[in-house]
UniProtKB/TrEMBL annotation:
<dbReference type="GO" id="GO:0071526">
    <property type="term" value="P:semaphorin-plexin signaling pathway"/>
</dbReference>
<dbReference type="GO" id="GO:0030335">
    <property type="term" value="P:positive regulation of cell migration"/>
</dbReference>
<dbReference type="GO" id="GO:0005886">
    <property type="term" value="C:plasma membrane"/>
</dbReference>
<dbReference type="InterPro" id="IPR036352">
    <property type="entry name" value="Semap_dom_sf"/>
</dbReference>
<dbReference type="GO" id="GO:0045499">
    <property type="term" value="F:chemorepellent activity"/>
</dbReference>
<comment type="similarity">
    <text>Belongs to the semaphorin family.</text>
</comment>
<feature type="domain" description="Ig-like">
    <location>
        <begin position="108"/>
        <end position="200"/>
    </location>
</feature>
<dbReference type="GO" id="GO:0007411">
    <property type="term" value="P:axon guidance"/>
</dbReference>
<feature type="domain" description="Sema">
    <location>
        <begin position="1"/>
        <end position="75"/>
    </location>
</feature>
<dbReference type="InterPro" id="IPR001627">
    <property type="entry name" value="Semap_dom"/>
</dbReference>
<dbReference type="InterPro" id="IPR036179">
    <property type="entry name" value="Ig-like_dom_sf"/>
</dbReference>
<dbReference type="GO" id="GO:0030215">
    <property type="term" value="F:semaphorin receptor binding"/>
</dbReference>
<dbReference type="InterPro" id="IPR007110">
    <property type="entry name" value="Ig-like_dom"/>
</dbReference>
<dbReference type="InterPro" id="IPR027231">
    <property type="entry name" value="Semaphorin"/>
</dbReference>
<dbReference type="InterPro" id="IPR003599">
    <property type="entry name" value="Ig_sub"/>
</dbReference>
<dbReference type="InterPro" id="IPR015943">
    <property type="entry name" value="WD40/YVTN_repeat-like_dom_sf"/>
</dbReference>
<protein>
    <recommendedName>
        <fullName>Ig-like domain-containing protein</fullName>
    </recommendedName>
</protein>
């Protein structure tokens, strides 16, 4: 599929696999040299080989068929696939709206940088989150609830801007800084020196930013029986809320797992049961 935007031509490839996936790749010219980049991966049908793909320019959709189902994929799945500026601006079908902080089908005035020529194009669109942390607590910072598969093998770097050291790259270690499976950062036992801004970068582009304020007020130990009872009661209340939230998360996780392994899919156009 060839797309021409502002005199720049892009070629988008959709590649089907025997594992039931569609790889979306863009090809473009940069300084006269042909470049390509993986934009997205669609899970069509687990372990079902893609047999046929057909493009409809009229409906702006790609139709994909396995032996057991047919599915429709919109060519411009901007807001449904990209929830941040970093990925949105790489897709020639899409552009980032700074005013609404949304990924939309491309039109003049939206941010777009398919060729990665302006690495800081999204910096002003990144939401700067503020967190107040109690002295001695640990805090989790993250850009993704679940990191997209196409980014899993890319290097994510965290930087801390502190009053004492200025800007420096964080080095992971088990006693202070821990990297999560979703490329987040856990800061252990926060103290005054840990206050300041934390920026997460991928390939030179800013993904997310946090500003941490440390509440250095030290708690004094209770000196009355009633004080102990109140603290214990507050702790029990918080723990019950945690257990309730955990049960809710486990229930939703189970529902997601069942949906992922189900033969049905919201984009199914046709599905049939295989002959036995």
């Amino acid at each position: 599929i060839k797309i021409e935007i502002l005199s720049q031509e892009y070629t988008v490839f959709y590649i089907g696999t025997n594992a039931g996936r569609i790889y979306k790749i863009v090809q473009y010219l940069r300084n006269g040299e042909s470049k390509s980049k993986l934009l997205d991966i669609f899970e069509i049908a687990q372990n079902e080989a893609i047999q046929v793909m057909e493009l409809s320019q009229k409906r702006k959709s790609l139709y994909v068929a396995t032996d057991y189902r047919i599915k429709q994929i919109d060519l411009a799945m901007c807001n449904r696939r990209y929830d941040n500026c970093f990925r949105c601006v790489k897709d020639p079908y899409c552009g980032w709206d700074k005013d609404t902080s949304m990924c939309k089908p491309y039109e003049p005035g939206l941010l777009q940088d398919v060729g990665n020529e302006t690495y800081d194009i999204c910096d002003t669109s990144v939401l700067k989150k503020k967190i107040i942390v109690t002295y001695g607590q640990s805090v989790h910072l993250g850009c993704f609830v679940k990191i997209p598969e196409i980014l899993k093998d890319q290097t994510v770097t965290w930087y801390h801007h502190s009053k004492e050291k200025g800007r420096y790259e964080i080095k992971y270690n088990p006693t202070k800084y821990i990297e999560t499976t979703e490329r987040g950062l856990v800061v252990i036992s926060v103290n005054e020196a840990d206050g300041g801004r934390y920026d997460c970068h991928l390939g030179g582009s800013l993904l997310c930013s946090y500003n941490i304020t440390v509440d250095a007020h030290r708690c004094t130990p209770p000196n009355k029986t009633n004080d102990y009872q109140k603290i214990y009661s507050d702790w029990c209340h918080e723990f019950e809320k945690y257990k309730s939230a955990m049960k809710t998360w486990e229930k939703k996780q189970a529902q997601c797992s069942r949906q992922n392994y189900s033969n049905q899919h919201p984009n199914d156009v046709f599905a049939r049961t295989p002959n036995v």
